[in-house]
Amino acid sequence: MNSTGPLQGIRILDLTAVVMGPYATQTLGDLGADVIKVEPPGGDNLRAVGPMRHPGMGAMAMHLNRNKRSIVLDLKQPEGREACLKLAASCDALIYNTRPQAMARLGLGYDAVAAVSPKIVYLGAFGYGEQGPYAGRPAYDDLIQGAAGVASLFAQQSGGEPRYAPVTLADRAVGLQAAIALLAAVLHAQRTGKGQAVEVPMFEALSQFVMGDHLGGHSFEPPLGPTGYARLLAPHRKPYATSDGHLSVLIYNDKHWQAFFDLIGRPELRSSPMFGTHTARAANIGAVYAFVAEAMATRTSDEWFAALAAADIPVARLHSTESLLDDPHLRAVDFYPELDHPTEGRIRTLAPVGRYSATPTAIRRPTPRIGEQSVELLREAGYGDEAIARMLERGVTLQPAPHKDDNE
Q1: 391 Cα distance to chain centroid
Q2: Which domains, from first to last, does the chain contain?
Q3: In 50-59, which positions are buried (b, 16+ CB within 10 angstroms) versus exposed (e)?
Q4: How far is CA 236 from the centre of its chain?
């Protein structure tokens, strides 16, 4: 199948599973890379998370593994390791998200992979950097959200209990960092002919994400104040309650505030000590947001939306995940394309992000079944039919049973 996208010609061996790594590699696949997903005989664990029409094709996995080809390899068997190395020899990059020690036990550490492909980028996205005392600890999204301070920020803002963000924040934020790092290292390898090992640790990456906002007074030595960005931690920094619902509103610069004071009939506040300048508002942000919350409760959502939009004050409707399906803007940009999956029937997916005038992205391949391209990829690696048959017989690899419509 012909590739499209700016990464056409880049080949990536994907030894990742669950969310972080597959999100990174799907992003690269959407951009045109040829992504080869290596799965154990049981498949990526996330394939078992429903809802699903058929085993191994859960909804989450469907949104993390399109634009990839799947090969099953039992890496604990010598033939599986050998096949993995043969595939690596033809790839620009290998990415994994297990602990480095596990890769070494499989005989797939950097030295082993670099021996078959000195130009390869060998990227590990895992919990903690190998130079620190947490090296080798297990890491999942929830653990890293807690370790990097995300959960405690919810408690600090609301006065309630620590909470995890109800999205895989660490996995997806660090997954994007991993995709960027992989591309940077591949570009270097193409310029110099030299590959390298790269690590993208979740704890450090998400801590940078958090502390970029919240290092605060500790940005200076000695500190000029506590950590934390007061605007983000203000209790009323949340969708404002109107008389019949909620709206997302950000009254930010002087122009916005002056227009807001006119809307509520309080023009004298333009020159007040608390509201007159950006610095003054920032110093009193808790009280400022509480003032806005009180005003917002006096009108309906529709009344406020019309008035704020007319005054050029930033405002947005508050969506739920259900109502987001029907957002008119997302519908207009074809954010939810529908397609016919070869085995799963009619499905709705999410469009690749961004538009490229010369190298358009595309959904070239639907999410594959476990091992759907095993035989195809082994042939590309140089295996003959007899060798492939032996590997299938010994469970080194597998291919799915033909779907009832495959030959129709």
Answers
A1: 34
A2: 11-209+333-394 (3.40.50.10540), 240-317 (3.30.1540.10)
A3: eebeeebbbb
A4: 28
Total residue length of the chain: 408
Grouped pLDDT means (10 residues each) for the chain, 408 residues:
83 98 98 98 95 96 98 98 98 97 97 98 98 96 98 95 97 98 98 98 98 98 96 94 97 95 94 92 92 96 97 96 97 97 97 96 97 98 98 97 66
E-assigned strands of 255-318?
Answer: 315-317
User: Strand ranges (DSSP E) for 171-245?
Assistant: 196-201, 240-241
Tell me the residue type at 282. Answer: A
- Return all residues near 260 (Cβ < 8 A) that are at least 6 apart: 251, 292, 308, 311, 313
- Please, are residues 97 and 103 in contact by the beta-carbon 8 Å criterion? no
| Cα distance between residue 194 and residue 186, in whole Å | 9
The answer to whether residues 179 and 28 touch, using CB atoms and an 8 Å cutoff, is: yes
- Spatial contact of 186 and 92, defined as CB atoms under 8 Å apart: yes
Nearest to 68 by CA among 19, 98, 31, 42: 31
User: At 180, phi and psi to the nearest 5?
Assistant: -65, -45
